[in-house]
Specification:
Layout lengths: L1 H17 L2 H11 L5 E14 L5 E13 L6 E9 L3 E14 L2 E6 L1 E2 L3 E2 L6 E3 L2 E10 L4 E10 L8 E2 L6 E11 L2 E8 L8 E5 L2 E11 L17 E11 L2 E4 L4 H13 L7 H11 L5 H15 L1 E2 L1 E3 L10 H7 L1 E2 L1 H14 L4 E6 L19 E8 L2 E5 L19 E7 L2 E6 L9 E11 L2 E10 L1 H11 L4 H12 L6 E9 L8 E9 L4 E3 L2 E4 L20 E2 L4 E10 L4 E5 L4 E4 L3 E10 L2 E10 L3 E2 L4 H15 L3 E5 L1
Parallel strand pairs: 1-12, 8-19, 18-20, 26-33
Antiparallel strand pairs: 1-2, 2-10, 3-9, 4-5, 4-10, 6-9, 7-9, 11-16, 12-15, 13-16, 14-15, 16-17, 21-22, 21-24, 22-23, 24-25, 26-27, 27-29, 28-29, 30-31, 31-39, 32-38, 33-37, 34-39, 35-36, 36-37
Helix pairs in contact: 5-7, 6-7
């Protein structure tokens, strides 16, 4: 094994010193004129063996060689190498090749001791980091980093991804695997069929892939997760045979469920009289199972603080519900644990459920390795339907799963040997509405009005997180940002906030306002632009955008503006209406005169999570029409 690894490293080192720095620089500057760093070589190897005790041993070696293509004579470049209890760092070597007079001069990098990767106050894991500092780099310098990790558990063999945050010239990925080990391979996001070069060597099989000219990913705002586009080879162990006995690892989805179930089997769930009393008191006033479920869910939201524990196997092991109840804090698994206990106490079927967030674009039917999911929730069954409850969400209603799991497959644990896969529904835009109803009148050339703006669904939960921790002037300033309209001379005179503490009601803001210098009066005519908010007018997408546009959720906004026609005036001109209807979005703008008022009604409807690239032209055409309409005015003429 060591001979194979050393040979690879010597090859790369020799290549680095033997090249002409200026030739390498010019070649890559021509190839990638806008890049400041180019990866010249990226070599990764998995060495997977069975030891004498029949235990799987996995060594991961990696070597990167990067070229600095911009002038960085005083630039300090740094790297981080990560490790954990599952991926232990055994060796690290890092140095730079400084370009001096068109020759390379080797300079050792400064490598820090291993340190805890400290996160924020609500997240704890066992991730370690080694910081690497390179000094004295200039244009044409190269950076070399070599690492060796030991993977301690075959379930944590991970995918190989063709991505380093810079273009890559040459990639070599190899796997040397013991012939007694049945290896699984799956390919994602490759444009064409990929096949490795396979050869036998002694009692091992060697797989080798070679790739060239891998372009960097051009990130764009509001694009789907990068994992939708990064090419990867999923590597996993199906099973292995030792002394005639076969040990299953990840043969299929049932294997993954069985492994997850092993963590549930380690729980020591005890009947807890105090927690039982809490459940009984919550559900006693209600006969409806739905109302009882709401009370339990809301209690956990309000009383169990979210603190994440991801150190080692803690990232997979739910804590006992009685312990969560005693401490009143926990991670997503712990929130699920206490929810399942409380629902079962109330005779509401409840299940541990594994799920991946929308950052992970694959389904359980495509992938059955532990990197397919990163979250746990509680699923309950009410009226023969599954509801997906995330105890870490602080303000979601019972029928509103957290937004980042919409459309995702949920792996629902029914029993030790039984599971089901159910897709979390994507909410409709009618559930996520921001409405603003405003009545205005003209007084001494000013617009004086009062309004009511309401938030429901995910629009409400987002508003909750913006407002919940604020008070005084900070709260008033944030409320102002929600209701301001017309121009920068908008003045909010007073407001009342309702529904912030309710999980089931809309959040609403009642407000009074005045708008100075907004109305134009010429002789016996008054000109008023009643479109006070002008939503979507600044949402045009760039023509050269590459990736689809992803919303947090489908949504709808409804703006209704009523203008009282001043005494002695009549409507001389009313703008025409506008209707736009597409599969992914819709827009309507309508005027009407009723009860001595002009009413403008605007509805914007973002129907889907994702706007595909082939709809950008339609979207931009719609935005252009909306922009033109937003400038039109009502003309009032003195009778």
């Amino acid at each position: 094994m060591k001979g194979f690894i050393i040979g690879l490293c010597l090859m790369l080192a020799f290549n680095g010193f033997s090249q002409n720095p200026e030739e390498v620089l010019q070649k890559n500057k021509t190839k990638y004129p806008d890049e400041s760093v180019v990866v010249l070589d990226y070599h990764v190897n998995y060495d997977i063996e069975l030891n004498k005790q029949g235990k799987v041993e996995i060594i991961l070696t990696s070597e990167e060689r990067r070229l600095v293509t911009s002038d960085r004579s005083v630039f300090e470049y740094s790297d981080k190498v990560y490790s954990s209890s599952f991926k232990q760092l055994e060796e690290i070597e890092a140095y730079s090749l400084i370009n001096e007079n068109n020759k390379y001069k080797k300079k050792e990098a400064a490598v820090s001791k291993e340190k805890d990767n400290l996160g924020n106050s609500i997240f704890s894991d066992d991730l370690k980091t080694n910081h690497i500092g390179y000094s004295g780099l200039n244009k044409g310098s190269q950076i070399v980093i070599k690492t060796t990790h030991r993977i301690s558990d075959p379930f944590f063999l991970r995918s190989f991804k063709l991505y380093l945050g810079a273009p890559i010239n040459n990639v070599v990925f190899t796997i040397k695997v013991d012939e007694r080990i049945d290896l699984g391979l799956k390919y994602f996001n490759f444009e064409k069929e990929v096949n490795p070069d396979v050869k036998n060597k002694g009692k091992s099989k060697i797989y080798e892939w070679k790739f060239t000219d891998i372009e960097d990913l051009d990130f764009e705002s509001d694009m789907p997760s990068a994992q939708n586009y990064i090419a990867e080879i999923s590597v996993y162990i199906k099973k292995y045979t030792f002394k005639g006995e076969t040990q299953d690892v990840l043969t299929d989805l049932g294997s993954l469920h069985a492994w997850y179930n092993s963590f549930l089997g380690k729980m020591n769930i005890e009947n807890n009289d105090e927690l039982n009393a809490v459940v009984d008191s919550l559900i006693a006033p209600y006969t409806s199972k739905r109302e009882q479920a709401e009370q339990i869910f809301f209690w956990v939201q309000d009383n169990i603080k979210y603190v994440a524990f991801e150190a080692g196997y803690q990232g997979f092991q739910p804590r006992n519900p009685q312990d969560v109840f005693q401490k009143l804090y926990g991670d997503c698994k712990d929130n699920t644990s206490i929810l399942v206990y409380m629902f079962n106490r109330a005779n509401i079927p409840a299940y541990f459920t594994w799920i991946g967030t929308r950052d992970i674009p694959f389904s359980y039917l495509e992938k059955h390795t532990p990197d397919i999911d990163n979250h746990m929730i509680c699923t309950i069954k009410l009226d023969d339907k599954y509801l997906f409850l995330d105890g870490t969400a602080r303000s979601n209603a019972l029928n509103l799963p957290t937004g980042f799991i919409q459309g995702k497959d949920a792996l629902i644990h029914i029993s030790e040997d039984e599971y089901v896969i159910e897709k979390v529904p994507v909410t409709s835009s009618n559930q996520n509405v921001h409405s603003d109803s405003v009545s205005v009148s003209l007084e001494n050339g000013e617009l004086i009005g009062h309004g009511k703006t309401e938030f429901s669904g995910y629009v409400k939960t987002n508003t909750y997180y913006h407002l919940n921790s604020l008070n005084g002037d900070d709260l008033k300033e944030r409320v102002y940002s929600f209701v301001t309209k017309g121009s920068n001379k908008f003045k909010m005179n007073d407001y009342a906030l309702k529904g912030l503490d309710s999980k089931t009601e809309k959040i609403s803001i009642l407000y009074d306002f005045s708008l100075l210098d907004y109305v134009t009066k010429l002789e016996d005519e008054i000109y008023v632009n009643l479109n006070l908010k002008k939503s979507w007018t600044k949402s045009k997408l760039k023509k050269d955008r590459i990736y689809p546009y992803e919303n947090d959720h489908p949504y709808k906004y409804i703006n209704v503006y009523d203008l009282e026609i001043p005494e002695g005036y009549e409507v001389k001109k009313l703008p025409t209406d506008l209707q736009i209807e597409e599969k992914e979005f819709a827009y309507s703008l309508t005027y009407k005169i009723e009860n001595n008022k002009v009413r403008l009604s605007i509805i914007g409807n973002g129907k889907e999570l994702v706007l595909p690239v082939d709809q950008f032209e339609n979207w931009n055409a719609a935005v252009k029409k909306i922009q033109l309409k937003s400038k039109e005015v009502i003309v009032l003429k003195k009778k």
